[in-house]
Amino acid sequence: MRSLYFDCFSGISGDMILGSLLDAGLHLEDLRDGLSELSLSGYELRAEKTMRRNLGGTSFFVDVSEVQPGDRGLRQIIDILEKSRLPQKIIEKSREIFTSLAETEAAIHSTTPDKIHFHEVGAIDSIVDIVGTLIGLDKLAIDEVHASPVNVGGGFVDCRHGTLPVPAPATIKLLEGVPVYSRGPEAELVTPTGAVLLKSLAKGFGPLPAQKVLFLGYGAGKADFPEWPNLLRVVIGEPGNAFQSDDISVINTTIDDMNPEHFEYLLEVLFEAGALDAYLTPIQAKKTRPGTLLTVLCEPADTVTLTSILFSESTTFGVRYHREARLKLERKIINASTDWGDVRVKIGTGGGDLLTVSPEFEDCRRVARASNVSLKRVYDAARDAAMRELEERI
Fold first, then answer.
1. pLDDT for 247
2. Fewer CB atoms near the end CB (10 Å): N or C, the chain?
3. Tens digits of per-residue pLDDT, 211-250?
4. How far apart are CA 56 and CA 40, in angstroms?
């Protein structure tokens, strides 16, 4: 499995993404050939090697040679996509991305997506950036995308809607759930196109995952800052082991003055809010009091949300949190048919090997009670049925 990591220390934009992919090995002719499947004309693609603060990269340009139509709406862009000869998966993903842009603009301007005209985002270069990025990832055989936290810049930017704070309203809304920070020059480091591509493509955000590096690429931004190289770095690699890896947040708090009956409700609320796991450990707290260590595991983007629940639903006055690297099996769910009903079964694989087959307990309990058979019998039957189905697929 081949992965790509966006290192967004100087933000991200559509042209920086394509510049980085070209720098990492994507052929410009392959990009041209892919985009020729769209019914668009009057533009040329160009890439140039350049320097940013003594570090080399690739600048990507869309040179418009003919007058283009005015502002395009969502329906017009979807028509262009659906009439193209692009692979269906690229058409569907492009449609999803442009729809997300329209919904974001509509929310900001208190209207509906069908009434949104994209202005800058609907211009020919943005269509090229979005569709071209998907073509590039396909050509480079990228299976999944990860990214660092994103430097959004600061200051103000002039656009069609006037002078707006950085990040622009559309950009910051598109980045909801993405870890961001502001550092360096007062400039717009993240564009709406870059934001929507990052949010739509990245499976997770954090440090560079453990991997064997295959290719590196640097996509140059148009500005040249004195503070640092204005580049987007991409790292293309393969896992260094047979397992998937990512980062999670670990939240801990010690409680010694809470009604024990309330813990059950607290755990339920945490799981409903997205906790990956939550558990209680009996400890001896300060002043020799018996206490409880509450531990919550979650996606880094959910840290603040789950911490807010701990403050509102428990008696704690503070929490500790840190990030930990995690190795995990690739997981999928299949339905196994038993004599008493269907049961979902978790399948865990690593390096192509089947390592775990685990029926869902709640399904087994439901089927056992409904059919008046033992839980163990249902569990074993579901596991056997899942194994038979997997063997038939091989």
1. 85
2. C
3. 889 999 999 999 999 989 999 999 999 877 668 778 899 9
4. 31
Give yes or no on whether 245-328 and 330-393 have one common fold: no
User: Which sign, positive or negative, has the C-alpha torsion 146, 233, 195, 302?
Assistant: positive
Closest CA to 228 of 54, 344, 368, 61: 54
**The dihedral of CA 98, 219, 162, 160: what is its sign?**
negative
How far is Cα of residue 230 from the mean position of the Cα atoms in its chain? 23
What CATH number should be reported for the domain whose range is 245-328? 3.30.70.1380
φ, ψ at 268 (rounded to 5°): -60, -45
Cis upstream peptide for 113 (omega within 30°): no
CA atoms of 342 and 336, how far apart (whole Å): 6
Calpha distance 370→366 (Å, rounded): 6
pLDDT in tens, 317-371: 999 999 998 888 989 999 999 999 999 999 999 877 889 999 999 999 999 999 9
What pTM was computed for the model? 0.69
What residue spans define the domains of the chain? 3-242, 245-328, 330-393
The domain made up of 330-393 is a member of CATH 3.10.20.300: yes
d(CA 15, CA 93): 18
